[in-house]
Amino acid sequence: xxxxxxxxxxxxxxxxxxxxxxxxxxxxxxxxxxxxxxxxxxxxxxxxxxxxxxxxxxxxxxxxxxxxxxxxxxxxxxxxxxxxxxxxxxxxxxxxxxxxxxxxxxxxxxxxxxxxxxxxxxxxxxxxxxxxxxxxxxxxxxxxxxxxxxxxxxxxxxxxxxxxxxxxxxxxxxxxxxxxxxxxxxxxxxxxxxxxxxxxxxxxxxxxxxxxxxxxxxxxxxxxxxxxxxxxxxxxxxxxxxxxxxxxxxxxxxxxxxxx
Length: 260
Known about the structure:
Shape: globular
Number of domains: 2
């Protein structure tokens, strides 16, 4: 009898723990849940112009405009939650937010831990150097020190290729390491390279040769099939009817569409 009572007690504790986890956001949120609540929470790191950055304490940029159109079609409002880039995926995985956006590249490793929408843009990793640098091509990076943002594909790629890498939480710190002479080059997504390099008053230049090419998408917690499908439908329509092109045009950024 005592054994059965103990077993029942253990089962009750297990059920209570599962209920607590679900109440704290442990379960997957569906499209219906979000539409019922009327809001979607989006984690982002606004140090990634022109995709997201702060202007007068407001998060603005290409991905913000894309999200505004998607949210309007879904009939929900957006709550942007600011955090460091390398904290976004863990927050999505833990269910602390509904989704993440910050120029996320779709990689095999990330696909193991999160769901991604179809790509909406094909980006490239650029090499930024000082204007008087002797680095002219990717081949010239051998034996040089490179700054990158923590948790990015730029960091992953440069480390996998054996470069001497210094990682920084924010891209502003990564470019500051370059301009102060602490590193020889900075590798970052091309549009961000152009935007932040333009703020350096001619101290830096973006090389013509790209480091890599990669697709951008939005991320959700693993198992968010209906949310991903809803986003895919709207993104596909925005690419085909020219709305995606128009958003990029409004920022003066050449739009490179993914293969459809």
